[in-house]
Amino acid sequence: MRVYVKAKGRKFFIPVPLCIANLGISIMQSSLVQRHIPEKDRKYVNMLDYNALRKCISDLREYKGLKLVEVKAKDGTEVTVII
Predict the structure, then answer these.
(1) What single string gives the DSSP state of each residue in 7-52?
(2) Cβ-contact 83, 7 below 8 angstroms
(3) What is the pTM of this model?
């Protein structure tokens, strides 16, 4: 997955391998991280089905080049996420 950010005349490119995304999902699911999430926000994190999310990320491997997100703000900032 590739994340492109354009802000105030600068361009950033952040490569995120899908295996790292799966690792991030596993870390978010751990009790150590869950303890440090504020109580008011914990209900939103607990609504996520981590197994389904992990399966979706593994299915995305077949769609290389797919644009997931393309956002352009009024101040000229652009964010694009491509598989």
Answers:
(1) ETTEEEEEE--HHHHHHHHHHHHSHHHHHTS-HHHHHHHHT--HHH
(2) no
(3) 0.66
**pLDDT, position 59:** 87
7's CB contacts (< 8 A; 6+ apart) are 76, 77, 78
**Residues 62, 49: contact at Cβ < 8 Å?**
no
Residue 40: give the domain boundaries: 2-82
Q: H or E segment at 80?
A: strand 78-82
Q: Note whether 14 and 2 are within 8 A (CB).
A: yes
Residues of the chain short of pLDDT 70, as ranges, are: none
Residue count of the chain, please give it: 83
User: Count of domains in the chain?
Assistant: 1
Residue where the block lists tokens 């490119």: 13
